[in-house]
Protein 1
Amino acid sequence: MNDKFEKATNFIKSNKMSLAMLITMVAAFFFTNVHAGSQGQEFSSVYDMITGWAQGTLGRIICIAIVLVGISAAVKNGTLMPIVIGIGAAVTLYNAPSIVEGILSATVDANVAVESLRNVSNGLIK
């Protein structure tokens, strides 16, 4: 019995990725619908206000200030990395609300998920 347990343990250790994919595929068949971010309406006014700040005039002023600070740090240090970091931070600040909205408002229908799995499996699942 101990030998069978060792073989099973070695199999699981050597095939972790295959096991994870199998568990994911089995879980996809059991979940009917996925609804992310469908509740919490009491915070929508705060979310709208912060989104307005980030993508409105205040957000643009902060983005320009971040880039200017990056330029001044680049001149002081003699390297271009602070400018790159400033531009990256400004782009992130401006686009973060759109990215968060896209991730948290995602909904998936079970039929679409199963059809996607069928396409990935190369026709092995009918």
Protein 2
Amino acid sequence: MVPATGGSEKGTARIQLDDGDVRLAEVHWYEAHGLGRREMKRKRYLD
């Protein structure tokens, strides 16, 4: 995970799509102090 600006984070993850395919994707999320991850979003596929 690489820290980004403004309390957000980004990283990579393997995600399973509705059709069953598994893809490598860049994901971004916001973190709130004491609450952990909030609002995770897939930004783009890397494969």
Protein 3
Amino acid sequence: MGRICAGILGPLAMVGAIVHGLIHGADVNEILVRSWVCLVVFSIVGGILGVIAESAIRESIQQRLKEELANRTQSSPAAGTT
């Protein structure tokens, strides 16, 4: 998930920087430098946010499964015996 977020936020920031530079009539070299900086920074930020989100989602799913399994074993303790 970290790579996905980095792959979305980085290019999106780069496009935003390019559009911003074109709207304000900036020099081409300035636009490219700013867009590359935005690409790198937001790719790193997106990667970090993606890893944090993936960790939170995994933890939530594991907790929910543990609770469900505990509820099943409490509601039918003799279900494993035939």
Protein 4
Amino acid sequence: MRLWILAILFYGIGDTVTTIMNLRSGCVELNPVVNLFVAGYGELGIILPKISIIAFCYYLYRDTKSQIIPIALFVIGLLCIAINVCVSLFKWSV
């Protein structure tokens, strides 16, 4: 359960918050699928795909009990947060 808490904190919340901060400062979402959601639903467009991905991953986890699933979400979230912070602080363009 601790791994899922980390996955939700870093992938679900951390990446979402840092992405929204960057969008508000004028950055553009580079993921084309998420960008379509953002264009249609604004900031909520970041949250809907995120919830869907977490739910799908949890569905897979229930069947397999593979710890790699929440670990992967945690690592992806950590990397996304790092990229978002670098974009914000250093005006990086990825």
